[in-house]
Design a protein that fits this description.
The chain is mainly α. 76% of the residues lie in helices and 0% in strands. It is built from five helices and no strands. The longest helix is centred in the C-terminal third of the chain and has 30 residues. The protein starts with a helix and ends in a 10-residue tail after the last helix. The relative contact order is 0.15.
Length: 131
């Protein structure tokens, strides 16, 4: 359940930032930049803080190689799904949603990996050891 919560939060962060429906921060900010500059910057900084938390944890736990590995696994899975004819790549909105889902899974794995590694190995991380 904790992984699911982390994934949902990452998905919400990414989908709220940009999605093809037009109901996103990017779309809103472009339309309201001149009239609502303080609110636009405030919300942008909130989003930036969320991304920093997720990206920093992901880079620390699985690193760039892990990120690339998860993206490669997701990419080949999508390739298999496309090869079986279960996925059409003609709709750009579907591709955007797939990208949001894949990136949110990468961020959720990055935020959860330390807990998974500790559970599997029984070893504490350096950050877990008290002085």
């Amino acid at each position: 359940m904790p992984f699911l919560i982390r994934w949902v939060l990452a998905f919400v962060l990414l989908a709220a930032t940009y999605n093809p429906t037009g109901w996103s921060y990017i779309t809103w900010a472009q339309a309201n930049w001149e009239t609502r500059l303080p609110l636009t910057l405030f919300l942008g900084l909130i989003f930036l803080a969320g991304y920093i938390i997720y990206l920093r944890a992901t880079l620390r736990s699985i690193g760039l190689f892990g990120i690339l590995l998860v993206l490669a696994i997701a990419g080949t899975l999508l390739w298999v799904i496309y090869d079986f004819g279960w996925l059409s790549l003609e709709n750009p909105a579907v591709l955007t949603w797939i990208g949001i889902v894949v990136l949110s899974i990468v961020l959720a794995i990055g935020l959860s990996w330390s807990i998974v590694r500790r559970t599997i190995s029984g070893q504490a991380d350096m950050d877990d050891v008290s002085e």
